[in-house]
Amino acid sequence: MELTGDRERLQKALPKLLSDAKAKMAHAYPSVDPAFGNEWEKRMAARIKVDDFLGVTARAYEKHFTNDEILDLITMMNARKEGKPVKAPAQLQQKMDSEAPAIVGEIMGGATELAVKLGGQVGGDIAREHPEYIRRKQFLPQ
Fold it and tell me: Looking at the domain assignment, is residue 31 inside a domain?
């Protein structure tokens, strides 16, 4: 993950991802006090772990490639990082091409599952601690 720059990219992307998620929540639930979204974003930033998401990626690759194939991929990435032109052996390239859709699907699904679970936990904590943030205008008469 270090070789691909995924850790750094995800770390840099998190603030925008959380801000976008907060905006979507505010749009979906306009009766909820904006303080809820602000608190949610703050707590998510504190609790979210990039390593959990990178673990999803690592597990997907481990599932679809042998240890030797992963070592070959690491060797290739190191060479590319050093600016050396590298081409994967035909068999590995074929496997990368055929497995890519499944790997991407597993990564996206696993990352979504992690984010939804943590987001729900954080939202539940805030709702219990600050019930005043949850306005029930649409359900209760004024």
Answer: yes
Helix, strand or coil, per DSSP, at residue 113: helix
Eight-class DSSP state of 4: T
| Of 98, 92, 70, 101, nearest in space to 4 by CA | 70
Q: What is the DSSP string of 18-72?
A: HHHHHHHHHHH-TTB-HHHHHHHHHHHHHH--HHHHHHHHHHHHHHHS-HHHHHH
Number of domains in the chain: 1
Residue 108 phi/psi, 5-degree rounding, is -65, -45
Residue 53 lies in domain: 6-133
In this prediction, residue 1 carries a pLDDT of 60
Average pLDDT per block of 10 residues along the chain, 142 residues long: 78 96 94 95 96 94 95 90 90 95 96 96 96 69 46
Q: Is residue 35 part of a domain?
A: yes
Spatial distance between the Cα atoms of 115 and 14, rounded to a whole number of angstroms:
11
Q: Helix, strand, or coil here: 138?
A: coil
Residue 27 counted as domain residue: yes
